[in-house]
Amino acid sequence: MEHVLGLRCTICGAEYGVDDVAYVCPRHGNDGILDVVYDYDLVRRRFAAQPPAVPSMWRYLPLLPVSRQAAQPLVQATVLETVGWTPLYPAPRIAAQLGLQALWVKDDSRQPTASLKDRASAVAVVKAREQGAAVVTTASTGNAGAALAGLCAAVEQRNVILVPRTAPPAKVAQLVAFGSTVLLVDGSYDQAFDLCLQVAQSWGWYNRNTAYNPYMAEGKKTAAYEICEQLGGAGRFRAPDVIVVPVGDGCIIGGVHKGLRDLAALGQIDRIPRLVGVQAAGSASLVDAWERGIAGWEMEAIDAHTVADSICAGLPRDRNKALRAVRETGGAMLRVDDAEILAAIPALARGCGVFAEPAAAAVYAGLVHAVEKGIVSAHDEAVLLITGSGLKDVASVMKGQSRTPAVVEPTLAAVEKALDGSVAR
Ligand SMILES: *Cc1c(COP(=O)(O)O)cnc(C)c1O
Ligand SMILES: [Zn+2]
């Protein structure tokens, strides 16, 4: 870990050695979320000496906050080996509909547990093993837990997951199948989060909670590396103009920003894309903060509600990093309502063949707003970050459908009647 110089508080800028603090800045308590600081000269040398790049997030091992000795045995020949390096597709039909010249879709529904959270949970599993933790725990709206559960199962690591009891059944089914100890909290995600911090502290368990654990953004940042490397091609990196990211706690957008800053520091990209964050209207405290120009630590909790469970957060835990990501890149924070989110699922599925859960599809609805408001213009090259699969929450998918499929008797005549001339013969 000599390549990690330390941890820096996002509020006061105080720096700590990696072994000097547990998770957050002691001066700022739970709000004192930390940044991981790297020795970029050493990182550069390690990349130069690295074996051929593997098609996963581990191709960026010299930029991850784990030791090679801890990572290698866990990653080799387990599910962890397949995290990351998800496809980046062009989406020309959606681009044309919106009047854009170039649009790309980064499809993180194609992760082992079907969400981007695998990138963070993979780092958590390695860190927990590095520290010899008996148990790993997290609160989650569902995906972070499912990712931790699946990757823990892959390497036989005990884990305890707290999710709100309202989490979509598919996400709970993943937790149960992977053999986690699952606690369905009779309360909100925010309550589950606070409870999990207490639980972790009481029993000394390794704490994966989003943002609170400074290394989760470090896993998520690999999505940004991949976008730029896939756009560049042939081992080169090229930044798009805009990346559109769904925002709940703000860890993904903060992580994407970190990934871009790493690439710029290493001289791999010469400019940082604008980051556009998309929140659900019923869970939009970061949009409010951005519009009002206030700091993350001045924000107050709201009572959040949205169909997009993965971005339902009353007090976004990575609010400092999320606001910094949008402000420093000249981006924006936008709100979209639940009807727009539900309509975005089929729009994206039909427009480019990618099936997204509500929170992930929200970026499509956000892009529509961004184009209308002139935040994204015709010549901008934009990337939509699709963070989770539509299979995670099929009930919401069906809510967004105007028509349900016809039921037919098993006869040709019934089929002909049902088609009613709508399909060419
Ligand atoms: C977690 C998650 C998000 C939001 O990420 P934050 O880091 O909480 O902002 C968006 N989409 C999906 C599918 C997620 O699982
Ligand atoms: Zn501090």
Q: Would you mind describing this structure in some detail?
A:
It is a single chain. The protein is an alpha/beta fold. The protein has a domain at 83-114 and 218-399: Rossmann fold, CATH 3.40.50.1100. Helix content is 40%, strand content 15%. The protein contains 16 helices and 13 strands. The strands form 3 sheets. It has a 6-stranded mixed sheet with strand order 4-5-13-10-11-12, sandwiched between helices. Strand 10 (242-246), helix 10 (251-265) and strand 11 (274-280) form a beta-alpha-beta unit. Helix 4 (117-130) packs across helix 5 and helix 13 (338-352) packs across helix 14. The longest helix has 15 residues, at 189-203. The chain is globular and about 75 Å long. The model has no long low-confidence stretch (mean pLDDT 96). The structure holds pyridoxal-5'-phosphate and zinc ion (ZN). Residues 9, 11-12, 14, 25, 27-28, 32 line the site of zinc ion (ZN).
**Biggest β-sheet: strands ordered side by side in the sheet:** 4-5-13-10-11-12
Our estimate of the beta-strand percent is 15-25%
CATH top level assignment of the domain at 83-114 and 218-399: Alpha Beta
How far apart are the termini?
Answer: 64 Å
Q: Remind me, CATH topology of the domain at 83-114 and 218-399?
A: Rossmann fold
Query: What ligands does this structure carry?
Result: pyridoxal-5'-phosphate, zinc ion
Order of helices and strands: EEEHHEHEHEHEHEHEHHEHEHHEHHEHH
